[in-house]
Amino acid sequence: MDKFRITGGRALKGRVSISGAKNSALPCMAAALLSPETVTLHNLPYVRDIITQRRLLEDLGATVLTPELRTHKISASHIELFEAPYDLVRTMRASVLALGPLLTRFGKAKVSLPGGCAIGTRPIDLHLIAFEKLGAEVKLEAGNVIARAPSSGRLIGGEIHFDKVTVTGTENVMMAAALAKGRTVIKNAAQEPEIEDLAELLNKMGARMKGAGTPVIEIEGVEALGGAEHTIIPDRIETGTFIVAAAITGGELEIKSCRPEHITAVIHKLREAGVEIEELNQSTLYVRRSNGGLKAKDVTTEPHPDFPTDMQAQYMALMTQAEGESHIVETIFENRFMHASELIRMGADISISGNTATVRGKTKLMGAKIIASDLRASASLVLAALCAEGETLIDRVYHIDRGYETIVRKFRSLGADIQRISESIAIAADAAEAHTK
Ligand code: EPZ
User: Fold this and answer.
1) Beta pairing partners, 230
2) d(CA 398, CA 273)
3) Three-state DSSP class for residue 163
4) Distance from the CA of 36 to the center of ligand 1, in angstroms?
5) 125 lines ligand 1 (CB under 6 A)
6) Long-range contacts made by residues 138-142, C-beta under 8 angstroms, separation at least 24?
7) Measured between alpha carbons, how far is 1 from 371 in angstroms, rounded to an integer?
8) Digit-coded pLDDT (tens) for 355-373
9) Annotation marks residue 258 as catalytic
């Protein structure tokens, strides 16, 4: 497994461009299963999860052409398989997004139940309850979800009220309802920008949905959907990660190709904490730490438009460099503080009680050998290492490759001392080190 070797203490400077949003690209790729015609997606991030999703589509029988690295032309005219197998679902939970499109277009789908993951149990019960509300018969058999449309072959529109806001649940139901018979209303829907982006694509394909981005989404089902061409929105979490990178290293960055309006809660909180964030235009931010330094500020993660859980770990790293005591409350996932113990290994002063982490700062971080546990935790550890004294070795960085495009190259272009060490080199280095002792 690859590692990152980072020597901290350099203030990052320069320009960085944000890639497409992984969490929009995944449902948009799944949406191509809804139509026999070609769906062309531009600005796809070149990250491992997109490669996995592509593999899933091809396993189902779709063809995926790549005229250029970040553009896919997906054609689902000959789908032969209606199953997302365990091997794929366990590597990427978002594979469950194939369930809605397969069920509504072909009347059947089999998807492996995604097990838990590092950040929580993450059930999909709300997805399944919703499909039943649309008339599907849903069974769990041998670790798989087996769903069938009513004998008419089409799902039937209905009212869905999610007990809890769920992003992929909302997306799965939007796609299922697009081809259902009649009208569907989703209440307590997720409002993330990725939901709006998916709705924009679906409407381009001929769907009739409105209200995406609000708690109530209304969908008039249609008989069939056509092809479309769509550009994926920028990744708001990558944007937030680079804002924190500028602030935590005491640097200054121009962040390009982003959408500030998608992260207003993050920008608001970071400004409160002493980060200067200027919107140069609709897609460019200028960021630096204010002269007064960083101040500890409490935060609670909530569904959009509030502070996103996917920025919690990065924010915790920043709070280790802020004056005072901050309280970080995680309300979305029950086990999303795995990064805290690694930050403590670097010298941070953090205590956890239930879903609240208390961070006391400012503390001097020292380089250490640490392990990444999930995608956003690994981003947090990279940020901490960039401001730590000395060298840090981060193991299991395959997590970060799932959702950050060419992260080493981007940070190096901003002056960071970071390198990827592939496993073979790491083993040799360890052996050499052991030999000198
Ligand atoms: C999406 O996951 C994102 N993933 C996650 O980003 C993100 O953290 C999460 O939304 C919350 O914003 C993608 O979009 C691919 P949820 P999702 O369903 O849809 C519970 C990243 O770092 N729940 O909104 O799986 C669930 O356990 C990833 O890029 C049920 O109980 O999250 C959680 O506590 C990590 N039953 C809460 O709801 C269900 O059927 C929110 O989960 C569904 C969810």
Assistant:
1) 41
2) 31
3) coil
4) 29
5) yes
6) 140/113
7) 11
8) 999 999 999 999 999 999 9
9) no
pLDDT of residue 423: 65
pTM score? 0.96
% of the chain beyond a pLDDT of 90? 90
Distance (angstroms) between ligand 1 centre and the Cα of 25 equals: 15
Helix axes 22-31, 193-204, angle to 10 degrees: 30
Long-range contacts: 393-396, Cβ < 8 Å, 24+? 393/3, 393/4, 393/5, 393/367, 393/368, 393/369, 393/421, 394/3, 394/4, 394/6, 394/370, 395/1, 395/3, 395/369, 395/370, 395/371, 396/1, 396/3, 396/371, 396/372
Residue 25 binned pLDDT confidence (cut-offs 50, 70, 90): very high
From the CA of 74, how far away is ligand 1's center (Å)? 26
Beta bridge partners, 287, equal 253, 277
| DSSP string over 295-333 | B---EE--STTS--GGGHHHHHHHHTTSBEEEEEE--S-
pLDDT at position 429, please?
Answer: 62
Distance separating alpha carbons of residues 243 and 254, to the nearest angstrom = 9
C-beta 377 within 6 A of ligand 1: no
In the chain, % of residues over pLDDT 70: 97
